[in-house]
Amino acid sequence: MNLLEKIKSLSLREYEQVVKWRRHLHANPELSYQEFNTVKYVDEQLKSMGLNSIPMATTGLIVDIKGKNPDKKTVALRADMDALPILEANEVSYKSTKPGVMHACGHDVHTSSLLGTVKILNEIKNEFEGTIRFLFQPGEEKNPGGASFMIRDGALENPKPNSIIGQHVFPLLPAGKIGFREGMYMASADEIYLKVIGKGGHGAAPDLTIDPIVIACHIIISLQQIISRNASPKQPTVLTFGKIEGGATTNVIPEEVNIAGTFRAMDEVWREEALARIKKMAESLAEGMGGKCEVNISRGYPFLKNDPVVTRRIKQAATEYVGAENVVDIDITLGAEDFSYYSQLVPASFYRLGTRNEAKGITSYVHTPTFDIDEESLKISSGLMAWMAINELLH
């Protein structure tokens, strides 16, 4: 049996265990930077394999598997562990036991699959050269991103990986298929918070007030011109305001209005320019209408770029593992991922694991109360990463 067939066999052997891990994690979700029980559980599984981890980023850890000639090359694999503040609507045996907290983005899948990869590679460590580092990180869902803390604490040092690979569920692809994208793939993500301050008063006497609701409306509409008239038509970019709060009744003009939104871009120069324009325009418009606007920009993740060479290599590895008919090219997305921090420092590739099954009714997108996966995808998720890692060590 060659190494590829051996890995496939081990992946199928560990399938039921990976499902158990995934269901345990799904039933016991923890929010960003609160993954204390999750990281403890992961560490317990690693210890049961005879592996000692290194804690970092408070609720994260790394662990290395050293093959023969461990200093020859290092490849890193990453999983995230946090859940979202969503009330789960699925009625399944592994439903979240924590009301209002749910693994609605598949991080339970990423963590359990990477544990499976650890188990496979630990078993065959005498059959490859080099070191494989596993990153189990917190806080992917919340600024500034757990990846930034993992990097701060040395996850990419001693030694620095030659490349890093990340896997993420993708409910638009059927289970069994794998998606790849070379180059720019995901956007930067910044949060925009605006406090529009006016002068409150009676709704029937607007002349005695400075109406922050009217000012806020002008700001929201005008800021869209930054996208339509300043961004290059060739440059994917989005500015969306998803929250506006102000006032309590029909006949009272409030003192202030609060607005919150997100800005996405795929170019760091344009990102900086746009954020500066957003601040200046919001402040100037409010001032021109007699009010004031306090602008708070929470800096999020940078854009995510998939190294073309690494992506082509792992795509070829996937073709060998699941067949060319199950490997597809996917489009860019204005979604964001803190894996992008790694991609700024190390040749990286972030690929997608198909998890959809229309026949089973598993079609909900991520970040929804009904998100779930076809667990058949777990038959390949661990072995595929193992095969990709070994192929990376050879290049």
Write a structural description.
- This protein is α/β, with parallel strands linked by helices and 395 residues long.
- The chain has 2 domains: 3-186 and 303-393, Aminopeptidase, CATH 3.40.630.10; 188-298, Alpha-Beta Plaits (2-Layer Sandwich), CATH 3.30.70.360.
- Helices cover 35% and strands 25% of the residues.
- It has 10 helices and 16 strands.
- Helix 1 (3-13) packs antiparallel against helix 10.
- It is elongated and about 85 Å long.
- The mean pLDDT is 97.
Question: What class would the helix/strand composition place it in?
Answer: alpha/beta
**How would you sum up the global shape?**
elongated
Instruction: List how many beta strands DSSP finds.
Output: 16
* The CATH H-level homologous superfamily of the largest domain: Zn peptidases
